């Protein structure tokens, strides 16, 4: 079974930067799209950024020009570079992967455990 482990969250001042990482581990799998979501306290989880296996990207309007999603397919890892952070970016950030299990030909969605990002004013 594939597991996603996130890292890189923390506390940063407004205008600062953080880089999140999410590494997938397991056996006999491949990953299609990978995504970052976030959920602020008291709010619904929202999609932040998507990257396909071919490297195409898409962003929420609120983060365009500030966040960059990238991936290293050899390492089964996705990154989220967050620049010019704002207090409203404060949330738990979750990694999400569309996984294909090659032995069973099954598709599933896997979530990471989340990492807290706090941006102080």
Detailed description of the structure:
- It is a single chain.
- With about 120 residues, the protein is mainly beta.
- The radius of gyration is 14 Å and the shape is elongated.
- The protein contains no helices and eleven strands.
- The mean pLDDT is about 95.
**Structural class category:** mainly beta
Number of helices: 0
The N- and C-terminal alpha carbons lie at a distance of: 40 Å
Average pLDDT works out at 96
Strand content: over 45%
Report the strand count: 11
Poorly predicted runs of 5 or more residues: none
Round the Cα radius of gyration to an integer and report it.
Answer: 14 Å
What overall form do the CA principal axes indicate?
elongated
Largest sheet: 7 strands, mixed
Summarize the structure.
This protein is mainly β. It has strands at about 5, 10-15, 20-25, 30-40, 45-50, 55-60, 65-70, 75-80, 90-100, 105-110, 115-120.
């Amino acid at each position: 079974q594939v597991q996603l482990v996130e890292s890189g969250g923390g506390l940063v001042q407004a205008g600062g930067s953080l880089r999140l990482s999410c590494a997938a581990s397991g056996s006999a799998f491949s990953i299609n799209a990978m995504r970052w979501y976030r959920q602020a306290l008291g709010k619904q989880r929202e999609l932040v950024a998507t990257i396909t296996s071919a490297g195409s990207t898409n962003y929420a309007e609120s983060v365009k020009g500030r966040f960059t999603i990238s991936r290293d397919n050899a390492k089964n890892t996705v990154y989220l570079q967050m620049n010019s952070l704002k207090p409203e970016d404060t949330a738990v950030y979750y990694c999400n992967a569309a996984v294909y299990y090659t032995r069973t030909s099954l598709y599933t969605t896997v979530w990471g455990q989340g990492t807290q990002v706090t941006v102080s004013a």
